[in-house]
Amino acid sequence: MRNAFRDLAAHRRTRCRVGIDIGGTFTDLVLETGERRITHKLLTTPQAPERGVLDGLAALLAKADVAPGSLDAVMHGTTLATNALLERRGARTALLTTEGFRDVIEMGTESRCDQYDLMLRKADPLVPRSLRFAVTERMSAHGDVLLPLDRPMLQAQARQIGESGTRSLAIGFLHSYVNPAHEQQAAEIIARMLPSLDISLSSDVSPEMREFERFSTTCVNAYVRPLIRGYLDRLRAGLDALGVRAPLLMMLSNGGLCDVATACRYPVRLLESGPAGGALLAARLAREHGLDQVLSVDIGGTTAKLCFIDGGEPQTARSLEVSLFYRFKAGSGIPLRIPVIELSEIGAGGGSIARVDDLGRVAVGPESAGAQPGPVCYGLGGKRVTLTDVHLHAGRLSPEYFAAGTIALDAATASRALDAQIAQPLRIDTDEAAYAVAEIADEAMAQAVREHAVDTGRGVAGRTLIAFGGSAPLHAARLADKLQIDRVLIPAQAGVGSALGFLHAALAFETTQSLHQDLERFDASAVNALLAELTARGRAALGALDPDMPSSTTMHAFVRYKGQGHELRVPLADVPFDEDGGRRLSAAFVNEYVKRYGRSIEGAGVEALGWTVTVTGHEAPPATRGARRAQDAPATVVSSRIVETRKVLDQASRQRADFAVVARNALAMDVSLTGPMIVVDEETTIVVPPAFEIRVLHNADILLERRPLASSIEV
């Protein structure tokens, strides 16, 4: 396989690449070649996701009149691993661990996601007890061998694993993050006995302290690894059959790209790959338009994803919770220790199912109709009313534009379903039912933003909302009303935002490892050696064998006051450390602590628990899309672009009003128009209520501003 760095450099220069995002409802594709950008959207094929990708790619290449062999790179994000966890469709997986720690993944931390629910249930562990095996061995917290690995016992356990029909094995020993020798020895012995078994080591997948999170992460990696490898093999074969010879690069949850080999080794890092692309797009837009504080909202067919972006960079974290037993309730799922872009997610999308609950209240989501059977109006077998059906009844959707006209929408059937399932049970008219469903969904999103802001110590006031995804522009203005936000930015190609974000990603890989350091007795040589090792691992993961591709490293430590349970991420500036490194790192931590909490703790000791290095491949900066301020060019008000006027249900007034319907591709640059208005294109629909005016910026992005507020956005 060609070197990923060399191929990436080539495709960046020629700029003929495609981004592909598989969502729960739609598969989105974007092809960029030179100054042209062509998009395509089609329903996801859940039973064989690669089929939808290959069909969509063939249609996209035909639409763009681009030969398959002309592509230089294919960037891909997928929900396949996430869906396998949610639906428990992964490989039959066993866990081998230190004797006495067999039940760690079931006991967890003994915390409860709801302190007062006496009927609280926990999800079954990913690996049942019958497939959890233990062996005598023990490392100390300093990496010293306390008990040697019992090889005869290990061989006996390996035979049982083979007889159990297991396809994948997670090996997690106590304190292996500081000394992986026993895990590596066990893997070598088992691999000789069971050569077809897929093996994941916790010291490789997540070499950090806290055994519950480390073991859980390794089990998830092992659980989805055969599935992801099989999918990527089929996809690569399909691309070859199409004549695509370009490298396939996979999007990671932290916003970096990696090659297929790395993705197959660490598939747990693909879990949030799609939403990460959307956050990258929003961060790029924030930098281009000079926006210091942004709230990005990505709403597709199944979920809404929220992310705070400050200073042009998305918020990041080093942990993630997946497969929640109580959907969207923190603490009820499987904790993972992987680098991620920090997002808040709720079950509100175009396919979210609306219903009247047992108490007579309107509820929306989290259950979704997905791509199959889909909303009622698709005519594909869906029987339960969804948000898409509500928007169609309310007059917000234009069937001839929806998904470029590839899906015929049946408004009459959608209205009948809304009437029967929501209006009649509540004894209200159908418009009131449509208002109620949309309002509940909007309020759920707004509340999720408020809670995420509190959880992360961010404020919402003064931010610009960047909305993308097929459904987000339908909700953006109403959501801005609820959050008291005055500006909304809708990017060009908003309906395929995550796939577009993939095109802006760089090859990058983050490595993390625990190494405890009391900063009063700081061992600079040990820390320098670890950082050098992590840097080498990152470069190896990127395949950094091409000297023509420059790269850079960023380093952080995870530091806390002694006695605390969580750490702060502290950037490392002066590396390698000298004998004064402990004092300088302690001072940097106190500075970060004061920024976050407004105070320091005098006299408390400081300790570092983990270290991380991110290696990023670089390219010459791409040509910008232009940068001039809106006030430099006076806006022109026009009315000739209105193609029809339609009665649309306005959420603010709860009444139908005359909305102008405007085709987005008919709008001229620097055009200012006043709501109420519907702006339509092939990928999404923008609702502009009466309180807002819109302006098309020079790069085809659309700015909504609350009247009469003047714009200060850079364009």
From TrEMBL:
All copies of domain Hydantoinase A/oxoprolinase, residue ranges: 214-509
One GO term of the biological process aspect: glutathione metabolic process
Source taxon at top rank: Bacteria
Every Hydantoinase/oxoprolinase N-terminal domain range: 17-193
Entry-linked InterPro entries: ATPase_NBD (IPR043129), Hydant_A_N (IPR008040), Hydantoinase_A (IPR002821), Oxoprolinase-like (IPR045079)
GO-annotated cellular components: cytosol
Annotated Pfam families: Hydant_A_N, Hydantoinase_A
Alphabetized GO MF terms: 5-oxoprolinase (ATP-hydrolyzing) activity
PANTHER family: 5-OXOPROLINASE RELATED (PTHR11365), HYPOTHETICAL 5-OXOPROLINASE (EUROFUNG)-RELATED (PTHR11365:SF23)
UniProt protein name: 5-oxoprolinase (ATP-hydrolyzing)
Organism this protein belongs to: Caballeronia catudaia
